[in-house]
Amino acid sequence: MLVPVDMSLHNKSRRFDITFEDGRSFEFSFEFLRVFSPSAEVQGHTPDQAKLQVGKRDVVIKGIEPIGTYALRFVFSDGHDSGIYSWDYLAELGQNKDKLWDVYLKELADHGASRDPDDPANAPFAEKPRATCPSHQR
Question: Considering Cα of 79, then 83, then 86, then 88, what sign does the dihedral take?
């Protein structure tokens, strides 16, 4: 199992850095970590359920919580906090960061969406209000 030996959060530059005991070191923008959250909310339970993340350019990490000795949970300013980022997942993201980002930008362009949180083109991707069960409305 990979083990980190150093981690740092840089709020001003909106960057999270991690170094592993094998010497590999990675830098992630807050936006990148939010876009590639391993949560089912983002990734879905199957690849066809994945949701394109739009308007995340200005997202901030408000908190980080350790999950045992194997992972972190980031709390983002947009309310997202359900992704569990294992050390292995963070290393995988770091090794493939450029390719993943290029694919993400292409997917945004293909869907006419934007990284800008205020872009009206992102409206079709907005969360739909969750239906409530009539028996729970009183």
Answer: negative
Domain count, the chain: 1
R_g of the chain computed on alpha carbons: 16
CATH of the domain at 80: 3.30.2020.30
pTM recorded for the entire structure: 0.90
Q: Domain residues for 64?
A: 4-136
DSSP for 64-112 reads: EEEETTTEEEEEETTS----EEEHHHHHHHHHTHHHHHHHHHHHHHHTT
Please write the tens of the pLDDT for every residue from 20-62.
999 999 999 999 999 999 999 899 888 888 899 999 999 999 9
Q: Listing from the earlier edge strand, what are the strands of the sheet with 15-20?
A: 4-10, 15-20, 25-29
